[in-house]
Design brief:
By secondary structure, the chain is α+β, with helices and mostly antiparallel strands. The chain has 2 domains: 24-131, Immunoglobulin-like; 196-318. Helices cover 42% and strands 20% of the residues. The strands form 3 sheets. Strands 1, 3, 5, 6 and 7 form a 5-stranded antiparallel beta sheet that branches. The chain has a 3-stranded mixed beta sheet with strand order 2-11-8, with no helix packed on it.
Length: 319
C-alpha cells in the first residue's frame, strides 16, 4: 500500500509540474516566406504559426494590412496539438505589382488565454525582390522587334480611293443641301451633374434593400459595395478608381490631398471587399450587414460641408 501511495504522489507532482510549465511557457510566433525573389504578379506564400497554451485562442488581424503587397488568398488552419500546447497557423498568398526590394510589413496577432489576458505577438519584417518580366537568358531586356513589312500593291488601293471619293462627294452634296435651310439656334439648358455623395447614398440604400444577403449572394453584395465606393472616389476626387487596384486607389487619394482618416476608411472597406472578391473568403451574413453603414459613414466623412459638383478625372489632372 505504501508503494502505491508513493507512485500516486509522484504522478500528482509530475502532473502539477507539467501544468505549471504549460502556464508559464509564453506563446511564440514563427513566420516563413517563400519565395523571396519573384517577377511581377507571382504568388508568395506567407505562413504565420503561433504556438500557445491549449486553453488559449488566437485572434488574427481583420483585415491583414500588407501594403504594398496585395492579398490573393487566405486560409486559417485548425489548431494542431503539440504535446501540452497547440499550434495555430494562417496561410496567406500575396503578390506585388511594383518593382524593386519591397518590405512585407509587420502585423500583430493576439493570443487570449482562459483568464481573458491578452498577449500581442508581432511578425518580423521580410524583404521580397520583385523583378521585371521580359528579360532574355543573359538577364538583359530583349530588344524591341521592328514592324512587320506589309506588301503594297497599287491595284489593291484603287477600290479604297474610289470609296473615299464617293463618300466625300456625298458629304459635300449633303452639306450644300442643308446649308440652304435656315434653322433657328436652340439653346439647350445645361444640367449640372449630380453631387457624388447623393449618387453614392442612393446606391447604398438600393443595395441594402435589394435582398442579396438574404438570397446568399455574399460575393455579389461585396462587389456592388466596392463598385459604389470606387465610383464615389472617382466622382468626388477624380481618381480613376474603377481601373485601379486597391493600392492604386489609395495612392491616388493621397495625391489629391484627401485626409488620412478618409484614406484609412477607404482602405478598410475596400480590403474587406477584396477578401471576398479575390481571396474566396466568405463571411457570415450578420457580419456583412455593417458594410453598407460603413460605406455611408465613409461618404459622410469624405463629403465637405458645402458639397462641390462631381469632379472628372481630366479636371482633377489639370488641377
Amino acid at each position: 500500500m505504501t508503494g502505491r501511495r508513493l507512485v500516486g504522489a509522484a504522478l500528482l507532482v509530475l502532473s502539477l509540474l507539467v501544468h505549471v510549465s504549460a502556464q508559464t511557457d509564453p506563446p511564440g510566433l514563427l513566420t516563413t516566406l517563400d519565395p523571396v525573389v519573384i517577377t511581377v504578379g507571382d504568388p508568395v506564400r506567407l505562413v504565420v504559426t503561433v504556438r500557445h497554451a491549449a486553453d488559449a485562442r488566437v485572434v488574427w488581424p481583420d483585415p491583414f494590412e500588407l501594403d504594398p503587397f496585395e492579398l490573393v488568398d487566405m486560409r486559417l488552419l485548425a489548431p494542431v496539438p503539440e504535446g501540452t500546447r497547440m499550434r495555430s497557423s494562417a496561410e496567406l498568398t500575396v503578390t506585388a505589382f511594383e518593382l524593386g526590394e519591397l518590405t512585407l510589413p509587420t502585423f500583430e496577432v493576439e493570443v487570449v488565454d482562459a483568464a481573458g489576458d491578452t498577449v500581442r505577438l508581432a511578425t518580423a519584417t521580410a524583404m521580397v525582390s520583385v523583378e521585371s518580366v521580359g528579360r532574355d537568358e543573359g538577364g538583359d531586356i530583349r530588344d524591341i522587334k521592328g514592324p512587320l513589312a506589309i506588301p503594297f500593291r497599287v491595284v489593291t488601293l484603287l477600290p479604297w480611293l474610289a470609296g473615299v471619293v464617293a463618300v466625300g462627294a456625298a458629304a459635300y452634296w449633303l452639306y450644300r443641301r442643308y446649308r440652304r435651310r435656315h434653322r433657328p439656334d436652340v439653346q439647350v439648358p445645361l444640367v449640372p451633374p449630380r453631387p457624388a455623395h447623393e449618387i453614392a447614398r442612393e446606391s447604398l440604400d438600393a443595395l441594402e434593400a435589394s435582398g442579396l444577403l438574404e438570397l446568399g449572394e455574399v460575393k455579389i453584395y461585396h462587389i456592388r459595395v466596392s463598385d459604389i465606393i470606387r465610383v464615389y472616389a472617382q466622382d468626388r476626387f477624380g481618381v480613376e478608381a474603377m481601373e485601379m487596384t486597391t493600392g492604386g486607389v489609395l495612392d491616388g487619394l493621397r495625391r489629391t490631398g484627401a485626409l488620412s482618416g478618409v484614406v484609412a476608411d477607404f482602405r478598410q472597406l475596400l480590403d474587406r471587399c477584396d477578401l471576398v472578391k479575390f481571396a474566396k473568403f466568405r463571411p457570415a451574413v450578420p457580419a456583412c450587414r455593417d458594410l453598407v453603414p460603413l460605406g455611408r459613414r465613409l461618404v459622410d466623412k469624405a463629403t465637405p460641408a458645402d458639397p462641390v459638383p462631381a469632379v472628372t478625372p481630366a479636371e482633377a489632372h489639370v488641377a
